[in-house]
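Review form for a predicted model. The reviewer records the input and the model, then writes brief findings.
Reviewer: anonymous (R2)
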Amino acid sequence: MATIVFCSVNKTARTTARRCLTSHLKGLASAGESHLPLSYTHSSSLTLLPGTRWLSRGSSVRFMSHGTAGRAGRTRRGALALGGAAAVTAAAAVAGFLANANHFQRAEMATKVLRDPEEKEPEGDILERCRGFMSPPVTDIALLQQTKGEMRTRMEMLIMETQAEFCKALQEVDGGTFKVDQWKRKEGGGGISCVMQDGKVFEKAGVNVSVVSGYLTEEAAKQMRSRGKVLKGKDGKLPFWAMGVSSVIHPKNPHIPTVHFNYRYFEIEEEDGSKQWWFGGGTDLTPVYINKEDAFHFHNTLKVACDKHHSKYYPDFKKWCDRYFYIRHRGETRGIGGIFFDDLDSPTQEEAFSFVKSCARTVVPCYLPIVYKHLNESFTDEEKAWQQVRRGRYVEFNLVYDRGVKFGLATPGSRIESILMSLPLTARWEYMHEPAKGTREAKMLDVLRNPKEWV
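Model under review:
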């Protein structure tokens, strides 16, 4: 018997996860999901990772699981009971931040964003907060302390905290350790790449941060103008600052989905000293097999975060995500989507940043419950082979369509290892592969060819 655990995250992430999971579990119970051996008892707390407590007024949840962790067999056995619920390009020199030409739509923001009272920045000074990071930040701590009220500093702290929380949560479930690789860019700035390979749970897990600065190239400036940006540089130069956190996780078990997220900020200083700025990003899930409960949990967690700010955000950004992560030559989406947005520059900088914080803080509660749910689930050789085929599609999208990867590979000074970190260690391509009708593989393809509404 195993007790479901969540990682220890900040208050907002815990609250979001609690609301989503509790709502999800009550929904399953009321729907008569008797095949899920769930013990839902009235208490005052929910068990989390060792050494943590998640205070909850009124409910506690225990989960029972069976099966053999990570083993492959010829038949599925010991199915797990409910146990809890663009590519990694941030390290490229300008990569994922400049490569947004021909985007599908502009983010239509509300005239007024409702501020979540829980969306407060962590207390404590810069130095104290930096002690919890995977490495020292890219920008010198003394400079961060001097500019702690500026958006560039606040965003750098957010992405460093997001990286640290996610990496620590993944290490807790896997038992492995991330290799932390800090790099510098001669043109300005640098990044921190955290990669874990050949772990017990994750074949490859990467969580990157980049904070870069310099001058826009003419090619990059043209791409900005093609998106409706009116840019006026001094002597042909446009100073810029770009930063973001990006991650792709490839699990070993085909019943644990691949997940990707990226949240970024861009700022340009024009000739008269005025600044243009915008945010972008999103989170999406790529399962090998369809699991409706997982899909609901993932999308509902994102919807709760979006709904704090505007009721149109989730439906609009969900559609945008389905359009962006589309493999045109296959006629199918990369996965079951999530949210995606770009050029977010209204209604105010503070309110846009508040929305991005809400999104970034869903990363752990969106994904870790799904990981724990399938952690001990066995799988067959055939299921593993199907996972390899689906990974091949993932590679095709990243190398053929992803704007960040394409731009990064073509940009001088880009860090190639960090750009290609998004690719799995192993994948498979079979000639004229098509699953038999009526199989779970065929049902997966049907969803990818006809995106669904999960919430």
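Findings: The CA atoms of residues 298 and 453 lie 12 Å apart.
Further findings: Confidence is low (pLDDT under 50) at residues 1-113.
Recommendation: see findings above.
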